[in-house]
Amino acid sequence: MNQWIITPDKYLKDEEVKRLMKTCEENAELARAYSNWIAIRDYMIIDLALNTGLRVQEISDLKTEDLNIQYGESSLVVQHGKGDKKRVVRFSKNLKAHIKQYLAERKDDSPYLFSSSRGEQLTRSALQKIFKAHAREADLPEHYSIHSLRHTFATRLYRASGYNLRLVLKELGHSNIQTTTVYSDVSNDEVEKALERLNEED
Fold first, then answer.
1. Helix or strand holding residue 165 (H, E)
2. What is the pLDDT of the chain when averaged over all its residues?
3. I need a surface site. Which of 44, 50, 62, 98 has the fewest CB within 10 A?
4. Which of 44, 25, 146, 153 is nearest to 89 (CA)?
């Protein structure tokens, strides 16, 4: 059986990430002026997805009680990951600050972190539509989906961690290192540098 691989079209490039986040942030700022919390919520969804690598269903199921942002903590608990496995996902101080701001601005008391204007849990389909709307506005290619943010997180974390596959495996909730190795083929900048040095020696 051929192993599935991560090709460059499955994750956002750094410039595309910046464009998407700039669009979301600007929409959220505009929304604040009109007390429209929907764009503020959407910005939080995309920032969380991009900086935790959560699966779409995990984002949908996330509740405010799953957050650990007190007493110096910056993490959340995925109660029912793939295979019904529970795991802790850590995140940056910047994302923690954004989450705290979002919670202060929320307009409903739904137990779910992300809910509709009627206070209902957002479905996977709704999360996909939210991503697609902002991606179009940021002029990103149509083939990207909200799941692309999981791949983007993984490739960026792999680079930032010094190519530590086991660290990426833990954050993504993979049960097998072989699943995580797909990211090693697209993220190793050292290979490109070595090839350039090889050409210089010719």
1. helix 165-172
2. 85
3. 98
4. 153
d(CA 60, CA 52): 14
Q: What distance lies between CA 40 and its chain's CA centroid? A: 16
Q: Where are the beta strands (DSSP E) in 28-110?
A: 67-68, 75-78, 87-90
Kindly name the residue from 150, 151, 156, 158 that is annotated as catalytic.
150
Q: What is the pLDDT of residue 159?
A: 79
37-51 confidence digits (pLDDT tens): 899 999 999 999 999
Q: How confident is the model at residue 4 (pLDDT cuts 50, 70, 90)?
A: very low
Q: At what angle do helices 148-160 and 37-52 cross, to 10 degrees?
A: 50
| Known active-site residue 124 | no
Q: Tokens 């008391």, residue?
A: 109
**Is residue 3 scored above 50 in pLDDT?**
no
| Range ranked top by mean pLDDT from 5-19, 96-110, 130-144, 179-193 | 130-144
pLDDT at 193 over 90: no
Domains and CATH numbers, the chain: 11-201 (1.10.443.10)
Known catalytic membership, residue 147: yes
Cα(42)–Cα(46) distance, rounded to whole angstroms?
A: 6
Distance CA 145, CA 130 (A): 10
**Of 82, 87, 124, 170, which residue is the catalytic one?**
82
